[in-house]
Amino acid sequence: MDDEDEFLLQLARSIQAWLWIEAELYRLYAMLMQGANSHLVSVTFNNIQSVDAKLCLLNSCFALVFGRGSDEIKEWKALFSKIEKLNKKRNKIVHEPVSILHSKGKRTISLSPSHMNAMALVKGQTTHKGGPVVSATYDPRAAKLLEDHRMDLNALYSLERVFKTASDELRTFQKKVSPAVATALKAKKVSQT
Distance (Å, rounded) from C-alpha 89 to C-alpha 85? Predict the structure, then answer.
């Protein structure tokens, strides 16, 4: 296998690892919607295209089920923040082109922002290292040119591991809070009748 094939295979593995995170987010939503028609649960969650919107939906659901200062909410908020940051990295691997650079007889393969996307080349706008996403408000005084904005094969290996770990953390959280969610939902159902 040549280096380009290896890079593309790892890119695919990293994207697949992200999909495990999305599957765990769905499992959390399905847990929170216990008793609802499973097809409706699936349709409502999967018709939301934005991961940010899915996270906000889960935020709202958890806020309704658990008290504001509960341990479950605190744990969810930490997971929410982590997944929100990882989603920026996911955006990079699915939206940025693969580039092959030739310099001094060496070939380097990486993901890097398109040269036509100047906003992706400045710090303070869009970065794969957790920086803010491009918004309607651009402040050129806060922007700094990124010296290295590429993501190479090693970065993809690392990202796959991080995505897998986050997926495992979401699954562990779901198993941990499932009994409390069931109890809370049952209590709320009784109080509404």
Answer: 7
